[in-house]
Amino acid sequence: MGYFPFFVEIEGKKGVIIGGGPVAAGKAEKLSAFGPKLTAVSLRFCPEFEKIAHRYGIVLTEREYREGDLEGAAFVIAATDDGALNGRISEWCRAHGVPVNVADDREKCTFFFPALVREGALTVGISTDGNCPAAAAWMRKKVERCLPEGIGTVIDLLGQLRCEVANCSKDQAVRARIMEKLFDYCLRREGEVTLQELRELLHGMGGTR
Fold it and tell me: Is residue 167 part of a domain?
């Protein structure tokens, strides 16, 4: 059936990573861009992980894993080199309804890490349901190359106009057409627009009350 790609807010949520190697470090870095409160537990942490932890304020706990480490977690990453331990972590998470990602073990995951493309407020997640991460990485590069110039800035600007567009009409279809026209204008200008310019264009469409 595949996995549905929910986009979930994790800012300020507790995330626990069990493992301290390069794989765990890479997952920590991806997550940190979205503002969770991360704690990592491992006997040792690789230098890369220590740098990432310092940059993002991740709490590193140097000791063996204890089951209590997972209490209160909104999500868990099991990325140790001990398959049996990863399995126990997965079982605990499943029993307690906590989303878990187990590195290199598709069957023990309840969620996957997508290959991410980020540009401002735009986030594109690409997944192969854990079947072929190499294909997801290849597709990520393809998507990055085809993004219009300045797309992140454009989306940020249009987001600032959402309330004004919402006041233009009670008809959702009308509001959608207005946003489409503003977005098309930004694409034609290759992202070289200002908020004031877009606001004037909106007003020219009759978008004031």
Answer: yes
186 and 198 in a single domain? The answer is yes
**Judgement on whether residues 6 and 107 belong to the same structural domain of the protein:** yes
Q: What is the DSSP string of 138-150?
A: HHHHHHHHHSPTT
- On the 0-12 / 13-18 / 19+ scale of CB atoms within 10 A, 13 is middle
Answer whether residue 140 is part of any domain: yes
> Residue 209 domain-assigned?
no
Beta-sheet strands, E only, within 50-173? 59-62, 75-78, 100-102, 115-119, 122-126
pTM summary value: 0.82
Strands 122-126 and 115-119, by their bridges, are antiparallel
38 membership: H or E segment, kind and range? strand 37-42
25, 48 in Cβ contact below 8 A?
A: yes
Residue 64's domain comprises 1-113
Instruction: Fill in the amino acid letter for 45.
Output: F
Final residue before a domain boundary, out of 62, 94, 113: 113
In total, how many domains does the chain have? Answer: 3
Can you read off the two tokens belonging to residue 161? 């106009």
pLDDT digits (tens, 9 = 90+) for 78-117: 999 999 999 999 999 999 999 999 998 889 999 998 899 9
pLDDT digits (tens, 9 = 90+) for 114-160: 899 988 889 999 988 888 989 999 999 999 999 988 899 999 999 99
